[in-house]
Amino acid sequence: MKTANFSKIKLKNGATILFEKRNSPVSTIIIGLKAGSSHEFLAKKGLAHFVEHNLFKGSINRSQQEISSSIEKRGGILNGFTADELTAYWAKLPANHTIFALDVLSDMAFNPRFAKEEMIKERKVVLEEIKMYHDAPQMFVLDEIKKRLYKEPFNIGGLGTEKTVNGLEREDLINWHKLYNPKNLIITVVGNCRINPIVQYVNNLKIRNLDVVRNPIIEKKADQKIFFRKGIDQAHVCLGIHVPTLASKEKYAIDLFNTILGEGMSSKLFQEVREKRGLVYTVKSFIDAEKSYGNLLIYAGTEKSKVRQVKEISLTMVKELANINSKDFNEAKEQCIGSFEVANEKSDSVAKQLLFNEVASKAEDYYSYVEEISKLKIKNIAKFSKINSYGFTALLPK
Fold first, then answer.
1. Model pTM?
2. Is residue 1 situated within a structural domain?
3. Range of the domain at 334
4. Residue 253: Cβ within 10 Å count
5. Does the residue 217 lie in any domain?
6. 213 lies in some domain
7. Strands (DSSP E) along the chain, which ranges?
Protein backbone atom coordinates (compact mmCIF):
# COMPACT_ATOMS: atom_id res chain seq x y z
CA MET A 1 0.00 0.00 0.00
CA LYS A 2 1.70 3.16 -1.21
CA THR A 3 0.46 6.46 0.13
CA ALA A 4 1.08 10.01 -1.00
CA ASN A 5 0.10 11.19 2.46
CA PHE A 6 3.29 10.03 4.21
CA SER A 7 6.31 12.24 4.84
CA LYS A 8 9.63 11.65 6.59
CA ILE A 9 11.78 14.60 7.51
CA LYS A 10 15.25 14.49 9.03
CA LEU A 11 15.93 17.73 10.90
CA LYS A 12 19.31 19.44 11.26
CA ASN A 13 19.34 18.68 14.97
CA GLY A 14 19.21 14.95 14.17
CA ALA A 15 15.57 14.30 15.01
CA THR A 16 13.31 12.40 12.60
CA ILE A 17 9.66 13.22 11.95
CA LEU A 18 7.30 10.56 10.57
CA PHE A 19 3.96 11.96 9.43
CA GLU A 20 0.86 10.46 7.84
CA LYS A 21 -1.91 12.85 6.94
CA ARG A 22 -5.44 11.53 7.53
CA ASN A 23 -8.97 12.88 7.25
CA SER A 24 -9.98 11.28 10.55
CA PRO A 25 -10.82 13.70 13.40
CA VAL A 26 -8.28 11.89 15.62
CA SER A 27 -4.48 12.08 15.84
CA THR A 28 -1.89 9.85 17.47
CA ILE A 29 1.38 11.46 18.52
CA ILE A 30 4.42 9.45 19.66
CA ILE A 31 7.68 10.66 21.16
CA GLY A 32 10.00 7.73 20.40
CA LEU A 33 13.58 7.28 21.60
CA LYS A 34 16.02 4.71 20.20
CA ALA A 35 16.98 3.54 23.69
CA GLY A 36 15.44 0.46 25.28
CA SER A 37 16.08 -2.33 27.73
CA SER A 38 18.53 -4.18 25.45
CA HIS A 39 20.96 -1.27 25.79
CA GLU A 40 21.23 -1.61 29.59
CA PHE A 41 24.06 -3.17 31.57
CA LEU A 42 23.20 -6.30 33.52
CA ALA A 43 23.37 -4.59 36.91
CA LYS A 44 20.99 -1.86 35.70
CA LYS A 45 18.31 -4.03 34.08
CA GLY A 46 14.94 -2.30 34.27
CA LEU A 47 16.45 1.19 34.06
CA ALA A 48 14.84 2.18 30.73
CA HIS A 49 11.43 1.07 32.00
CA PHE A 50 11.94 2.79 35.35
CA VAL A 51 12.81 6.05 33.59
CA GLU A 52 9.65 5.70 31.49
CA HIS A 53 7.54 5.36 34.64
CA ASN A 54 9.17 8.33 36.31
CA LEU A 55 8.65 10.67 33.38
CA PHE A 56 4.91 10.43 34.05
CA LYS A 57 5.50 11.68 37.60
CA GLY A 58 5.98 15.32 36.68
CA SER A 59 8.07 17.70 34.59
CA ILE A 60 9.64 21.03 35.45
CA ASN A 61 6.52 22.72 34.06
CA ARG A 62 3.71 20.30 34.91
CA SER A 63 2.75 18.11 37.85
CA GLN A 64 1.87 14.45 37.44
CA GLN A 65 -1.82 15.29 37.57
CA GLU A 66 -1.47 18.17 35.11
CA ILE A 67 0.26 15.87 32.59
CA SER A 68 -2.46 13.24 32.67
CA SER A 69 -5.46 15.57 33.01
CA SER A 70 -4.29 17.87 30.18
CA ILE A 71 -4.69 14.97 27.74
CA GLU A 72 -7.60 13.10 29.33
CA LYS A 73 -9.77 16.20 29.86
CA ARG A 74 -9.61 16.73 26.12
CA GLY A 75 -10.94 13.22 25.53
CA GLY A 76 -7.54 11.72 24.88
CA ILE A 77 -5.49 8.69 25.94
CA LEU A 78 -1.99 9.01 27.37
CA ASN A 79 0.44 6.13 27.78
CA GLY A 80 3.95 4.85 27.20
CA PHE A 81 5.90 1.64 26.70
CA THR A 82 9.43 0.31 26.89
CA ALA A 83 10.62 -2.19 24.29
CA ASP A 84 14.01 -3.81 23.84
CA GLU A 85 15.29 -1.21 21.40
CA LEU A 86 13.10 1.83 21.95
CA THR A 87 11.03 3.72 24.51
CA ALA A 88 7.90 5.66 23.59
CA TYR A 89 5.38 8.11 25.03
CA TRP A 90 2.14 8.56 23.14
CA ALA A 91 -1.21 10.26 23.11
CA LYS A 92 -4.33 9.78 21.01
CA LEU A 93 -6.86 12.60 21.02
CA PRO A 94 -9.00 14.90 18.82
CA ALA A 95 -6.83 16.14 15.97
CA ASN A 96 -7.32 19.84 16.76
CA HIS A 97 -5.19 19.26 19.91
CA THR A 98 -2.22 17.69 18.07
CA ILE A 99 0.35 20.39 18.78
CA PHE A 100 -0.87 20.72 22.35
CA ALA A 101 -0.34 16.99 22.89
CA LEU A 102 3.10 17.21 21.28
CA ASP A 103 3.97 19.96 23.75
CA VAL A 104 2.80 17.90 26.74
CA LEU A 105 4.67 14.78 25.61
CA SER A 106 7.84 16.74 24.84
CA ASP A 107 7.73 18.52 28.18
CA MET A 108 7.26 15.20 29.96
CA ALA A 109 10.04 13.47 27.99
CA PHE A 110 12.70 16.17 28.03
CA ASN A 111 12.08 18.17 31.22
CA PRO A 112 11.66 15.57 33.98
CA ARG A 113 11.96 16.52 37.63
CA PHE A 114 13.04 13.05 38.78
CA ALA A 115 11.88 14.06 42.27
CA LYS A 116 13.39 11.64 44.78
CA GLU A 117 10.15 11.20 46.74
CA GLU A 118 8.27 10.31 43.55
CA MET A 119 11.02 7.93 42.51
CA ILE A 120 10.74 6.07 45.84
CA LYS A 121 6.98 5.66 45.36
CA GLU A 122 7.30 4.61 41.73
CA ARG A 123 9.89 1.98 42.63
CA LYS A 124 7.18 0.29 44.70
CA VAL A 125 4.83 0.42 41.71
CA VAL A 126 7.37 -1.27 39.43
CA LEU A 127 8.12 -3.94 42.04
CA GLU A 128 4.38 -4.71 42.13
CA GLU A 129 4.40 -4.88 38.32
CA ILE A 130 7.20 -7.46 38.49
CA LYS A 131 5.15 -9.50 40.98
CA MET A 132 2.11 -9.28 38.72
CA TYR A 133 4.05 -10.69 35.76
CA HIS A 134 5.46 -13.45 37.96
CA ASP A 135 2.07 -14.42 39.41
CA ALA A 136 0.21 -14.49 36.07
CA PRO A 137 1.06 -17.89 34.52
CA GLN A 138 0.84 -16.79 30.88
CA MET A 139 3.01 -13.73 31.48
CA PHE A 140 5.44 -15.85 33.48
CA VAL A 141 6.11 -18.37 30.70
CA LEU A 142 6.36 -15.64 28.07
CA ASP A 143 8.98 -13.94 30.23
CA GLU A 144 10.78 -17.23 30.87
CA ILE A 145 10.97 -18.22 27.20
CA LYS A 146 13.29 -15.27 26.61
CA LYS A 147 15.66 -16.79 29.18
CA ARG A 148 15.58 -20.04 27.22
CA LEU A 149 16.44 -18.30 23.93
CA TYR A 150 19.15 -15.83 24.99
CA LYS A 151 22.03 -15.39 27.42
CA GLU A 152 22.40 -12.55 29.89
CA PRO A 153 21.99 -9.62 29.85
CA PHE A 154 19.50 -9.67 26.97
CA ASN A 155 17.43 -12.48 28.43
CA ILE A 156 16.44 -10.45 31.49
CA GLY A 157 12.99 -8.91 30.93
CA GLY A 158 12.54 -5.20 30.47
CA LEU A 159 11.04 -4.77 33.95
CA GLY A 160 14.32 -5.88 35.50
CA THR A 161 14.46 -7.87 38.72
CA GLU A 162 13.66 -6.97 42.30
CA LYS A 163 17.39 -6.71 42.99
CA THR A 164 18.25 -4.48 40.03
CA VAL A 165 15.24 -2.18 40.46
CA ASN A 166 15.98 -1.75 44.17
CA GLY A 167 19.54 -0.79 43.22
CA LEU A 168 18.58 2.04 40.86
CA GLU A 169 19.42 5.54 42.12
CA ARG A 170 18.39 8.99 40.94
CA GLU A 171 21.81 9.44 39.33
CA ASP A 172 21.16 6.34 37.19
CA LEU A 173 17.95 7.90 35.85
CA ILE A 174 19.70 11.19 35.10
CA ASN A 175 22.53 9.42 33.26
CA TRP A 176 20.12 7.28 31.22
CA HIS A 177 18.10 10.35 30.34
CA LYS A 178 21.15 11.68 28.46
CA LEU A 179 20.10 9.25 25.72
CA TYR A 180 16.96 11.36 25.26
CA ASN A 181 18.57 13.58 22.65
CA PRO A 182 17.70 14.60 19.06
CA LYS A 183 19.90 11.95 17.43
CA ASN A 184 17.82 9.26 19.09
CA LEU A 185 14.47 11.06 18.67
CA ILE A 186 11.67 9.98 16.34
CA ILE A 187 8.43 11.99 16.39
CA THR A 188 5.55 10.08 14.80
CA VAL A 189 2.22 11.74 14.02
CA VAL A 190 -0.74 10.11 12.28
CA GLY A 191 -3.85 12.22 11.94
CA ASN A 192 -5.70 15.21 10.55
CA CYS A 193 -3.18 18.00 11.03
CA ARG A 194 -0.46 19.88 9.16
CA ILE A 195 3.19 18.91 9.17
CA ASN A 196 4.70 22.42 9.13
CA PRO A 197 3.72 23.31 12.73
CA ILE A 198 5.11 19.93 13.86
CA VAL A 199 8.44 20.59 12.13
CA GLN A 200 8.58 24.09 13.56
CA TYR A 201 7.84 22.83 17.06
CA VAL A 202 10.48 20.08 16.98
CA ASN A 203 13.08 22.44 15.50
CA ASN A 204 12.56 24.77 18.46
CA LEU A 205 12.89 22.08 21.13
CA LYS A 206 15.57 22.92 23.66
CA ILE A 207 17.20 19.56 24.39
CA ARG A 208 20.52 19.65 26.19
CA ASN A 209 21.08 15.89 26.53
CA LEU A 210 23.80 14.19 24.51
CA ASP A 211 24.87 10.57 24.74
CA VAL A 212 25.11 7.60 22.39
CA VAL A 213 23.30 4.29 22.71
CA ARG A 214 25.55 1.27 23.25
CA ASN A 215 25.05 -1.68 20.94
CA PRO A 216 22.93 -4.43 22.51
CA ILE A 217 24.73 -7.62 23.52
CA ILE A 218 22.60 -10.45 22.15
CA GLU A 219 23.85 -14.02 22.40
CA LYS A 220 21.47 -16.76 21.33
CA LYS A 221 20.92 -20.13 22.93
CA ALA A 222 18.11 -22.70 23.01
CA ASP A 223 17.38 -24.68 26.18
CA GLN A 224 14.45 -25.97 28.17
CA LYS A 225 13.19 -25.59 31.73
CA ILE A 226 10.11 -26.76 33.64
CA PHE A 227 8.64 -24.93 36.65
CA PHE A 228 6.11 -26.11 39.21
CA ARG A 229 3.70 -23.97 41.21
CA LYS A 230 1.00 -24.57 43.80
CA GLY A 231 -2.41 -22.99 43.40
CA ILE A 232 -2.82 -23.38 39.62
CA ASP A 233 -4.89 -25.99 37.80
CA GLN A 234 -3.66 -25.58 34.25
CA ALA A 235 -0.23 -26.15 32.71
CA HIS A 236 1.11 -23.24 30.65
CA VAL A 237 3.65 -23.97 27.92
CA CYS A 238 5.70 -21.82 25.56
CA LEU A 239 7.94 -22.86 22.72
CA GLY A 240 10.31 -20.41 21.01
CA ILE A 241 12.25 -20.50 17.74
CA HIS A 242 14.77 -17.94 16.47
CA VAL A 243 13.54 -16.30 13.24
CA PRO A 244 14.56 -13.27 11.10
CA THR A 245 14.59 -9.86 12.75
CA LEU A 246 12.39 -6.87 11.97
CA ALA A 247 15.36 -5.46 10.03
CA SER A 248 15.45 -8.49 7.72
CA LYS A 249 13.88 -8.60 4.28
CA GLU A 250 12.42 -11.96 5.36
CA LYS A 251 10.16 -10.31 7.96
CA TYR A 252 7.22 -10.53 5.55
CA ALA A 253 7.77 -14.23 4.94
CA ILE A 254 7.93 -15.09 8.64
CA ASP A 255 4.77 -13.05 9.23
CA LEU A 256 2.97 -15.12 6.61
CA PHE A 257 4.38 -18.34 8.08
CA ASN A 258 3.10 -17.36 11.52
CA THR A 259 -0.35 -16.52 10.14
CA ILE A 260 -0.71 -20.02 8.71
CA LEU A 261 0.67 -21.64 11.84
CA GLY A 262 -1.14 -19.94 14.71
CA GLU A 263 -3.11 -16.79 13.92
CA GLY A 264 -6.76 -17.20 14.79
CA MET A 265 -9.24 -20.06 14.94
CA SER A 266 -8.58 -21.17 11.36
CA SER A 267 -4.84 -21.67 11.95
CA LYS A 268 -3.12 -25.05 11.78
CA LEU A 269 -2.39 -25.07 15.50
CA PHE A 270 -5.91 -24.16 16.59
CA GLN A 271 -7.53 -26.66 14.27
CA GLU A 272 -5.24 -29.52 15.24
CA VAL A 273 -4.68 -28.95 18.96
CA ARG A 274 -8.05 -27.56 20.02
CA GLU A 275 -10.69 -28.41 17.42
CA LYS A 276 -9.49 -31.89 16.45
CA ARG A 277 -8.02 -33.10 19.75
CA GLY A 278 -9.62 -30.87 22.41
CA LEU A 279 -6.33 -30.52 24.30
CA VAL A 280 -6.45 -26.78 25.02
CA TYR A 281 -8.66 -23.76 25.38
CA THR A 282 -5.98 -21.39 24.09
CA VAL A 283 -3.23 -22.08 21.57
CA LYS A 284 -1.62 -19.44 19.37
CA SER A 285 1.62 -18.33 17.79
CA PHE A 286 3.00 -14.85 17.28
CA ILE A 287 6.15 -13.00 16.25
CA ASP A 288 8.24 -11.05 18.75
CA ALA A 289 10.82 -9.08 16.77
CA GLU A 290 12.71 -5.81 16.72
CA LYS A 291 15.83 -4.57 14.93
CA SER A 292 18.32 -7.03 16.45
CA TYR A 293 16.29 -10.15 17.24
CA GLY A 294 13.33 -12.22 16.12
CA ASN A 295 11.36 -15.04 17.76
CA LEU A 296 8.42 -17.20 16.74
CA LEU A 297 6.56 -18.07 19.95
CA ILE A 298 3.88 -20.70 20.51
CA TYR A 299 1.78 -20.52 23.68
CA ALA A 300 -0.80 -23.02 24.96
CA GLY A 301 -2.67 -23.81 28.17
CA THR A 302 -3.42 -27.49 28.77
CA GLU A 303 -3.63 -30.32 31.31
CA LYS A 304 -0.43 -31.25 33.11
CA SER A 305 -0.52 -34.73 31.59
CA LYS A 306 -0.87 -33.33 28.06
CA VAL A 307 2.17 -31.02 28.03
CA ARG A 308 4.45 -33.38 26.12
CA GLN A 309 1.72 -34.12 23.58
CA VAL A 310 0.97 -30.43 22.97
CA LYS A 311 4.68 -29.72 22.58
CA GLU A 312 5.18 -32.53 20.07
CA ILE A 313 2.12 -31.58 18.04
CA SER A 314 3.27 -27.94 17.92
CA LEU A 315 6.68 -28.95 16.60
CA THR A 316 5.03 -31.25 14.06
CA MET A 317 2.78 -28.43 12.86
CA VAL A 318 5.82 -26.22 12.26
CA LYS A 319 7.62 -28.96 10.31
CA GLU A 320 4.55 -29.79 8.21
CA LEU A 321 4.46 -26.27 6.80
CA ALA A 322 7.30 -27.42 4.55
CA ASN A 323 4.52 -29.01 2.48
CA ILE A 324 1.97 -26.22 2.57
CA ASN A 325 -0.43 -26.38 -0.39
CA SER A 326 -1.19 -23.46 -2.69
CA LYS A 327 -4.77 -23.07 -1.44
CA ASP A 328 -3.73 -22.59 2.21
CA PHE A 329 -0.83 -20.40 1.11
CA ASN A 330 -2.99 -18.03 -0.95
CA GLU A 331 -5.69 -17.87 1.73
CA ALA A 332 -3.01 -16.92 4.28
CA LYS A 333 -1.84 -14.12 2.00
CA GLU A 334 -5.36 -12.74 1.88
CA GLN A 335 -5.63 -13.06 5.66
CA CYS A 336 -2.36 -11.16 6.20
CA ILE A 337 -3.38 -8.38 3.86
CA GLY A 338 -6.88 -8.17 5.33
CA SER A 339 -5.56 -8.05 8.90
CA PHE A 340 -3.13 -5.32 7.87
CA GLU A 341 -5.93 -3.25 6.36
CA VAL A 342 -8.12 -3.67 9.45
CA ALA A 343 -5.27 -2.59 11.76
CA ASN A 344 -4.49 0.29 9.40
CA GLU A 345 -7.79 1.89 10.38
CA LYS A 346 -6.40 2.78 13.82
CA SER A 347 -4.05 5.74 13.94
CA ASP A 348 -2.28 4.48 17.08
CA SER A 349 -1.58 1.08 15.49
CA VAL A 350 -0.12 2.73 12.38
CA ALA A 351 1.97 5.21 14.37
CA LYS A 352 3.53 2.42 16.44
CA GLN A 353 4.29 0.31 13.38
CA LEU A 354 5.92 3.27 11.64
CA LEU A 355 8.08 3.85 14.71
CA PHE A 356 9.20 0.22 15.06
CA ASN A 357 9.98 0.00 11.35
CA GLU A 358 11.98 3.22 11.41
CA VAL A 359 14.11 1.99 14.30
CA ALA A 360 14.66 -1.39 12.62
CA SER A 361 15.17 -0.24 9.03
CA LYS A 362 12.91 2.44 7.59
CA ALA A 363 9.34 3.53 8.24
CA GLU A 364 8.45 3.21 4.56
CA ASP A 365 8.56 -0.58 4.93
CA TYR A 366 5.14 -0.34 6.55
CA TYR A 367 3.60 0.85 3.29
CA SER A 368 5.25 -1.96 1.32
CA TYR A 369 3.55 -4.68 3.38
CA VAL A 370 0.76 -5.58 0.94
CA GLU A 371 3.13 -5.59 -2.04
CA GLU A 372 5.74 -7.71 -0.25
CA ILE A 373 3.20 -10.25 1.03
CA SER A 374 1.60 -10.50 -2.40
CA LYS A 375 4.82 -11.47 -4.18
CA LEU A 376 5.88 -14.20 -1.72
CA LYS A 377 6.25 -17.75 -3.02
CA ILE A 378 5.77 -20.98 -1.09
CA LYS A 379 9.52 -21.56 -1.10
CA ASN A 380 9.99 -18.28 0.81
CA ILE A 381 8.19 -19.63 3.87
CA ALA A 382 8.78 -23.39 3.60
CA LYS A 383 12.36 -23.04 4.85
CA PHE A 384 11.15 -21.81 8.25
CA SER A 385 9.66 -25.23 8.91
CA LYS A 386 13.14 -26.66 9.42
CA ILE A 387 13.83 -26.56 13.16
CA ASN A 388 17.48 -26.80 14.16
CA SER A 389 16.88 -25.85 17.80
CA TYR A 390 14.20 -24.37 20.01
CA GLY A 391 13.60 -23.05 23.48
CA PHE A 392 10.87 -24.47 25.69
CA THR A 393 9.43 -23.66 29.09
CA ALA A 394 6.37 -24.79 31.03
CA LEU A 395 4.70 -23.91 34.31
CA LEU A 396 2.96 -26.97 35.78
CA PRO A 397 0.61 -27.44 38.73
CA LYS A 398 2.48 -28.82 41.74
1. 0.96
2. no
3. 224-397
4. 22
5. no
6. no
7. 6-10, 16-21, 26-33, 77-82, 87-94, 185-191, 224-229, 235-242, 280-290, 293-302, 391-397
